[in-house]
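Okay, can you check this protein?
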Amino acid sequence: MHIHILGICGTFMGGVAQLAKALGHKVTGCDTNVYPPMSTQLTQAGIELTEGFGVEQLAIKPDLWVVGNVVSRGNPLMEAILNQGLAYTSGPQWVGEHILRGRKVLAVAGTHGKTSTSSMLAWVLQQAGLNPGFVIGGVPSGFGVSATLGQGDCFVIEADEYDTAFFDKRSKFVHYRPTVAVLNNLEFDHADIFPDLAAIETQFHHLVRTVPSEGRVVCPANTESLERVLKRGCWTPVERFSASGEAAPWQARVLGASKFEVLNNGEVKGTVEWGWSGLHNVNNALAVVAAAHAVGVNVADACSYLSEFPGVKRRMELRGEAGGVKVYDDFAHHPTAIATTLEGARARMAEIAASKGEESGRLIALFEPRSNTMKMGTLAQALPASFKEAHAVACYTAGIQWDVLDTLGSLGERLFTSNHLDEIIDHVVAQARPGDWILAMSNGSFGGIHEKLIGALAQAAGVRV
């Protein structure tokens, strides 16, 4: 079958393309942003790409048009497809019908941590010899690709609550029919498509309704939004976890910034000692251990595998160091994710400094409010508290629709704002000193600020990188 994918360079749709190619289909696609790294992955997979959505692509005559949610009514190619009555479907529906059917699906949902948790879970299952397939909204460092069919029964999928397509406004994850559903957390986000938290809770309940009675729902203890979801009706055993002391079958006993024990029903089952920090990552790990255990992985083994987890690109990813200053990249863009990421970074910095008998450096946070929700300012009032752990904050203001100085003014002298990237870089380089960490947070490329910062820091220090 020949499949032509509209919006192929999105993280999810690019994964769909690679899975379809691996199944033996002829795959082509188009997008308005055909550039690396996704374009490189697709080209290497032998997938032909077209720039834009021109109607001349009708001449390709595929058997099926697979439509990403970046495509809306008025798109010239989509209008032509509709007018000619051609066969089309959404990416999530195609995956559900052609990739997931017959597999033991482990779906990871939640407002935060989906990519990290999915990557950890795929890693644990792989190390356990289960050879899982997966499609993840990032690139797990231990695999080097964002999607693979795998050879075993298990398939890990990052289960996004964003809408499926212009013609299917349900969340993507309703198409996945998981055996194990991880509900990591649930807060308000995606203000461009959801009017309130209750609307998102409804979508999560649609997901819960699809989990079989012999499956498993894994979720944190005492999360009000998720408890409301489950009280609407749940026909599946629920296993709760907690790293904060709440009563739950799965618990963590934190022994340091990057070390913790995993307990099941009060009994220590294993220890995780890794290069990651933050209570959010401990919770992610507990969810992974519980989910992996549900498909037969020994808990002690899962803890051992997590201790070797190599990480995920764009999740506290060290991009380089110059003049004794480390530059990190992270995908955080929601106030809660920003807060937990900064808390974890500060804890890790303190732990490393203590091990060397040194004083910890400073944490400088750079933030690009790039998501639709952040541009609209829907959650802006929660941002000042999110930057509590940062010694300095620089906010890139290009394209946002709210008054940054007014909203973030309580940060006082810690705050610097500009709608010019070069000004942000100059300000940060002038402030930075050896031992500091610079953490750039955005759900986009942030204008390539990481490489520019490393170059500027090196120039200021008189070194070559």
